[in-house]
Design goal:
Blueprint lengths: L2 H6 L2 E5 L4 H12 L3 E6 L2 H15 L3 E5 L7 H8 L5 E6 L14 H29 L2 E6 L12 H21 L4 E6 L8 H4 L13 H11 L5 E2 L3 H12 L2 H12 L3
Parallel strand pairs: 1-2, 1-4, 2-3, 4-5, 5-6, 6-7
């Protein structure tokens, strides 16, 4: 067993694993020798990914098709991994809703809060005791640069990711002394399915990172810092906004992000 699998293996749990950053986490962790538990709604994609990783790396893969908007999903996931030695938890699943706050569908906004906030809280809460007993392991949370400041026309998504940042940073403080590495990942624009699902033309986005580059950067900073922004462009942009008087920053953002 190599040092990576000893510290973070033998099993990693990855939510939102059927595409984008979650899929990239699964691919990279399999390449590093970890077995996987993959969670997402799209069972066909999970099965295809499991077959690919098993054929290429000999990875053991448990596929858990779950709709994370279902309140019972976290308990079912925790039951499924109860007898597995999970050393890394990648809370990656999430989605966003863009547009004027009052125009958002109430059901979609409630589902967003469930997936983005409740699920990572429940999974971390259920799995941290075993990580403490192990005395080693990792928790990763995928947040967003939009959680670093309130983002007009992305209000509930931005608020949900601010919650994830606060949760991850608090757990970094609590769990680092126990030998558990905690990282909150704050990507900027990433080349995934998410922008198109939110009604954004991907061609209008600049400074896109690939999911693979985001994951490589995250894993390189695991155990180094509590919060990581992988994009130099977005790190500098957010630092500039947060250095401005807040009313000026929010006014500028509202003008820039207002729907056409």
């Amino acid at each position: 067993m190599n040092d990576y699998t000893h510290r973070y293996g033998p099993v990693a749990l990855v939510t939102g694993a059927s595409s984008g950053i979650g899929r990239a986490f699964a691919v990279e962790l399999a390449a590093r020798g970890l077995d996987l538990v993959l969670v997402a709604r799209r069972a066909d994609r999970l099965r295809d990914l499991a077959a690919e990783l098993t054929a290429k790396h000999g990875t053991g893969v448990h596929v858990l098709p779950e709709d994370l908007t279902d309140p019972g999903a976290p308990d079912r996931i925790l039951d499924a991994v109860r007898d597995l030695d999970v050393g890394m938890v990648v809370n990656n699943a999430g989605f966003g809703v863009k547009g004027a706050f009052e125009s958002g569908d109430p059901g979609a906004l409630a589902d967003l809060q469930t997936v983005n906030c409740t699920v990572p809280t429940r999974l971390a809460h259920g799995l941290v005791p075993a990580l403490r007993r192990r005395g080693r392991g990792a928790l990763l949370f995928t947040a967003s640069v939009e959680g670093l400041i309130g983002c007009p026309y992305s209000a509930v998504y931005s608020a949900s990711k601010a919650y994830v940042i606060a949760l991850g940073e608090a757990l970094w403080g609590e769990l680092t002394p126990a030998g558990i590495d905690v990282l909150t990942l704050c990507p900027g624009a990433t080349d995934t399915e998410a922008p198109a699902k939110q009604g954004i033309d991907p061609a209008t986005l600049h400074h896109l990172m690939s999911p693979e580059a985001v994951v490589d950067s995250a894993l390189a900073n695991l155990g180094v810092e509590p919060l990581h922004v992988p994009s130099d462009h977005y790190r500098q942009s957010m630092e500039g906004l947060r250095a401005m008087p807040r009313r000026d920053a929010l006014t500028a953002m509202a003008r820039a992000m207002a729907p056409a």
